[in-house]
Structures are given as structure tokens and as C-alpha cells.
Amino acid sequence: MKKRKVEICVISDVHLGTYGCHASELLDYLDSIKPKILILNGDIIDIWQFRKSYFPKSHLKVVKKLISFTSKGTKVYYITGNHDEMLRKFSDTHMGNFSLIDKLVLNLDGKKAWFFHGDVFDSSVHSAKWIAKLGGYGYDYLILLNRLINWCLIKLGKEPYSLSKKIKGSVKKAVKFISDFETTATEIAIENNYDFVCCGHIHEPKMIHQTTKKGSTLYLNSGDWIENLTALEYNKKRWKLYHHKKIEKVSEEEYFELETKLSGQLLDSLLFSK
Q1: Record's InterPro entries (predicted)?
Q2: Scanning 38, 60, 144, 231, which has the fewest C-beta atoms within 10 Å of its C-beta?
């Protein structure tokens, strides 16, 4: 298969090791491109929920593919997020074409680009981490339930439906948090004369020009590989938001098996989380 040449590819919020991760689709995407630079903008491996003992072959193949990029000349930057924050103790590690860092600034055709995950703006991650972790289990359960619903809808010849998007869109606090996140990121970027600011964390893919009295910047969010299946690509001085086709292929048997495991783990988290 002929691969598309990409100057820069940015992906984030893959959450390998969780039931919601669309690893097979991500692998298809990674197999289709040949990037000069690959930026992994946080939450690639979900260490928060790694104790699930759930890491199927498709997830391992993604890890193998990411490693293989480095041996083929691609510069890979792994920017840490909150779900893989344990890696931050190894920040500023550089091995050949691979770098583990907390943030990144690149000069792109004479313009400054600032890359970071974005959890620094999320107070729940810092002040009430156990609530954030527990919320992660609830979100995982919601995604699993959504997969069963979509399996039924597809069988009936109807379009898939996103429960989490509906909930986020109807809850004012969630809408306000996303808006505040984007505003904070762009204001700081403008104050520091960055032409591009690229984040992840909120699972909301977006490209939008933002302007204040002090200047302007292009706000970019690479989205996620749980619901949106998106990536950012930079070519010939232009950014593009890539959308990959989602494949709903969860069987009833697989659903009930995963539901049993997840229910037990959700109960454990309620009993033993600190």
C-alpha cells in the first residue's frame, strides 16, 4: 500500500489499555502514512487504568508500530499527559529519534508552534485526582455501553449514536470547561507569540483562528481515538484535521465479557480508591 507523505502528524488521547480505544483503526491510519515528525500529544497509554489486565494484540501492535517509526527515520516526540503522567519522571529523555518530553516548541516555516497535552488547565486532575480517575472508569463504562447500542443500531440499519457527545453537549459545565480550556490555551499562546497552539486532553478535535487585542493564533486540538478518531496533519505550510472511519464490530458475547470485567473493576475503584 502506498503511504501518504506527511511532514508532521499529531495524535493524542489514544488510551491504550482501555476498552474504548480504537486501536485497529489507529493502526490502519498509521500504516497509511509516512511522517517526517510524529507527535504523540499525551494519554497514549492509559497508565491510570493499566491494572485492568487488558492489553489486547491490537494495542500491542500500535506500540510496535510507533516504535518502528523511529527506526525508519521518523522523529517521534512523546509528550506526557495526565493518564501517562508516571512517565514524567523520565521527561527530557532522548534516545536516537525518540524523545520523551512534557512540551514542545517547533519552528514551522518561520512560525512558532507550541505543543502540550493540556491537563495543566484541568483543576480536577490536580486537586481531586481520585475523582478524575473514578470518572475515567465511568467514561469507560459509558463507551462500552455505547458500543452495544451502536451494534444494535447498525443491525437495524440506523446511524451510530454518541452518548458521551450528547451528554457533554447538554451539560453546561462540560461546555463551559471546553470553552475555558480553549480560551486559556489561546490567550497564553498569543501572549508568548506562538502562531500555533496544539493540545489534546479534552477529546474535542478542532482547528480555529482565535484573535484578541494582543494578537492572534491558530488553536489546534488533535481529538482522540476513543470517539472521534482524529489526527492533525501539517503539509506545505497548512494544517488539516484528519477523520478516520470508525468500525463498530463488538459482538454481544464480547460486550458481556467486557461488562463483567469492567463492573468488577468499577466496584474495586469505589472501594479502594484514595
Answers
A1: Calcineurin-like_PHP, LpxH-like, Metallo-depent_PP-like
A2: 60
**Domain covering 4-272 assigned CATH 3.40.50.1010 in the classification:** no
Residues 40, 76 contacting (CB under 8 angstroms) = yes
3-state secondary structure of 99: strand
> How far is the C-alpha of 148 from the C-alpha of 170, rounded, in Å?
22
Q: What ranges do the domains of the chain cover? A: 4-272
Strands 75-79 and 93-95: unpaired
| pLDDT tens, the chain, 274 aa long | 789 999 999 999 999 988 788 999 999 999 999 999 999 999 999 887 665 567 889 999 999 999 999 999 999 999 999 888 889 999 999 999 999 999 999 999 999 999 999 988 754 444 444 444 444 555 666 666 676 677 676 677 777 766 566 555 554 455 465 678 888 999 999 999 999 999 999 999 999 999 999 999 999 999 999 989 999 999 999 999 999 987 655 545 455 555 555 555 555 555 555 4
Note whether 19 and 140 are within 8 A (CB): yes
Q: Classify residue 244 as left (phi > 0), alpha (psi -120 to 50) or beta.
A: beta
Quickly list H helices, 75-194.
123-127, 129-155, 163-170, 172-191
Residue 68 and residue 31 in contact, taking contact as beta carbons nearer than 8 Å:
no
